[in-house]
Known about the structure:
This protein is α/β, with parallel strands linked by helices. It has helices spanning about 15-25, 30-40, 45-55, 60-70, 90-105, 115-125, 135-150, 150-155, 170-185, and strands at about 1-5, 25-30, 80-85, 110-115, 160-165. Strands 2-3-1-4-5 form a five-stranded parallel sheet, with helices on both faces.
Amino acid sequence: MRIVFLGPPGAGKGTQSARVADRFAVTHLSTGEMLREACRIQTPLGRRATEYMNSGRLVPDDLVHALVAERLAEPDCQRGYLLDGFPRTLTQAEGLDELLVEHGSGLDVVIDLEVSQEVLVDRLSGRGREDDSEEVVRERLRQYDKLTKPLTDYYRGRGILRAVDGVGTTDEVFARIVAEVQASTR
Ligand code: AMP
């Protein structure tokens, strides 16, 4: 099973996607985590990515694509995976499509976790990760609206987009997502 998770920063994507990957026994791939690790251990890619991440901007598509392409070729991805935070631009989505064709596979479902702007700002201002200064948070939301939101149309056009209400307790939202994944892979 291959799942993509979309949703603005602060929608609860990280928490939910880890749980959902576990529930369906697929590999959880977070490009944010992979990039943070690359920055931490200062790989050449990490060194290039740091300035983008610290300012709330997206890391260039070619860097992220190379990272994902390499990771998807690993054995633990053959049983399926959940992509958390990738793709984030149309170019990345097209790049992913090419990788899927090469692997002879396709996506089963794209979950779009929906949370209103007011709830997001509330949640994000209380989160306090290192890259979460107010201006950085605002920039991340701007980048989401401009670059990532168009992906909902892209995947809706393919008939694989499932919108899920992201407001509620963690358990409530989790149950909604599981129901949508089950419905679309039946
Ligand atoms: P996340 O943990 O998914 O919120 O990602 C944290 C940061 O990593 C983002 O603000 C971006 O700078 C970078 N990042 C993560 N995934 C991507 C991606 N698919 N494309 C570009 N930048 C990304």
